[in-house]
Design a protein that fits this description.
Length: about 140
């Protein structure tokens, strides 16, 4: 299974925030640390906020912080939230895709079962389990 870059960035953000829970980070700071587009990272932060994983605050002293303790944020729930718009394969799209094998396909249920095993494994870990320690640049 391959996670979308969007999800990868979301997990990185949460791990970084968990490493310094008392701090607020601007999206510019996070983008610089991860060497990625601030514009793209802003979209990820907004989605994490919609999912209740982070809190954002504008203005002086503002920034992004975890919405709750890192040990209360399961990796499986984060991935489910961020991956909701990305289909594993075409026939898993909300509209069913246009695969001509769809009427008799025996692959889709197996792929969905494998995906659930993957997510269940992630459910056993939290963001706290993956929080960085030390210098982010050295990670």
């Amino acid at each position: 299974m391959r996670l979308a870059t969007f999800t990868d960035y979301g997990l990185r953000i949460l791990m970084r925030l968990a490493s310094s829970p008392e701090e607020r980070f601007s999206t510019a700071d996070l983008a610089a640390q991860f060497q990625v587009s601030q514009h793209h990272l802003t979209k990820v932060v907004q989605d994490l906020a919609r999912g209740g994983f982070v809190i954002t605050q504008r203005g002086a002293g503002g920034g992004v912080s975890l919405a709750r303790d890192a040990d209360q944020i399961g990796l499986g729930s984060v991935v489910r939230h961020l991956e909701r718009r990305f289909a594993l394969v075409e026939c898993c799209q909300a509209d069913g895709g246009s695969c001509v094998l769809k009427p008799r396909c025996l692959l889709k249920p197996r792929l969905l079962a494998a995906q659930e095993v993957f997510l269940t494994a992630l459910d056993r870990s939290t963001v706290a389990d993956c929080a960085w320690s030390g210098d982010v640049a050295a990670a």
